[in-house]
Design goal:
By secondary structure, the chain is α+β, with helices and mostly antiparallel strands. The chain is built from four helices and three strands, in the order βαββααα. A three-stranded mixed β-sheet has the order 1-2-3, covered by helices on one side.
């Protein structure tokens, strides 16, 4: 398995994807912590529905299924608000651009 950081992925994406196509896996780290893994796609993965795929991920312990439906009241108010009126989206984009 290839281990690399986010900055390196940005610079070498084509090369890393070529190696994944050849059968290797890539573990991506952000500040030393694993955040993603790129693995070769299996032909069966392309034809299965999302429910089955999520079930397989849950069985592997990679995701956790909800224990109950989401609370619909969460959608009643504003989705995002800030005290000073600044843009949460802009803060996210700035953070991403700074690669923090």
């Amino acid at each position: 398995m290839i281990t690399t950081n986010v900055t390196d992925v940005k610079a070498r994406l084509s090369e890393l994807l070529r190696r994944v196509a050849e059968g290797e896996s890539v573990l991506i780290l952000h500040r030393g912590r694993p955040i993603a893994r790129i693995e070769p796609a299996v032909a069966g993965d392309l034809s299965t529905d999302d429910t089955e795929r999520v079930g397989r991920l849950a069985a592997l312990g990679l995701v956790r299924l909800p224990s109950r439906p989401p609370d619909a009241r969460l959608l009643d108010g504003p989705l995002v608000s800030t005290v000073d009126g600044s843009s949460v989206l802009q803060a996210f984009l700035d953070d991403r651009a700074d690669d923090r």
